[in-house]
Amino acid sequence: MNTCIFGDSITWGAHDFEKGGWVERLKSHCLENHNGVDVYNLGISGNTTEDMLKRLESEARTREPKVIIFAVGINDSLYIGTKENHKVDLDKFKDNLSKLAGIAKTITDTISFVGLTRVDESKTMSRTHGIPERYYENKSIDEYDSIIREFCKQNNLDYIDMREVIGTGDLEDGLHPNSKGHEKMFKAISEVINRFFSNNDGQDGMESKKVKSLKFRHELVKDTLEGRKTVTWRLFDEKSLQVGDMLKLIDSETGKQFSKAEIISVREKKLKDVNDSDFTGGHLIFSSHEEMLKHYRDIYGEKVTMDTPIKMISFKLL
What we know:
Sulfate adenylyltransferase, 2 domains, 35% helix, 5-stranded parallel sheet, alpha/beta, Rossmann fold
């Protein structure tokens, strides 16, 4: 399921120095949790709805998306010199939204709009990039955001509200979210659009079962493919791994899938209760509980204790 996300510098990921922006976080999330979802980040710094109209059809059609997400408008709301001189005026903005949706509907029925984030006016009033001065103002952003919200309501499209998501402490320069802000945006947006991706899970011969991803160190890939490694141990299992789950096995170094597998058994023990009989299926062998504790603290941090449960997962390649 190809997913195209059109936007501006916030979509592109500006100032997220940890993970590259909310779209890149969404891309990683889909790789880990959804089967056959490819996310394309089509954010360009400075883009308005006018700019997007010039490139939407050609960039979308080449990727044949099932989902199109728009995150645009904050640069339209920018005014230059005076408050009457918006980069894209309100009437033109309304018309552009209609045109964008119209083009998108010729490609897919699954279309969403991300609402606009607010700014820290102490840093954006004004934002000077030469002469004349350019301003981002929350009152103006509110007007443009309300147009997006009403447009989505009238056309039965998803509107993902950002009004309460990003605070001034989540902004790097007054306009662009920092890493914390991008994480908040990712969580809010993924809550809404995950259902699109969930409907796609179960393809590629795994029709009735949810597909989950497990990462393996690069040096374990060959042993796994050649059948020497058939067991993996996992702590703090956030994926609720269980018998029957279908897996995408990912090389953690390259980020690429190297095989598919099915979980055939799951056992759980506290670290302190692990004994020699548990070291099966090509799993790394530890000489003591202390060595094991150090190994897993190196991976998961100091939260690992002797009472931490370990899931021992046996799998077979498909």
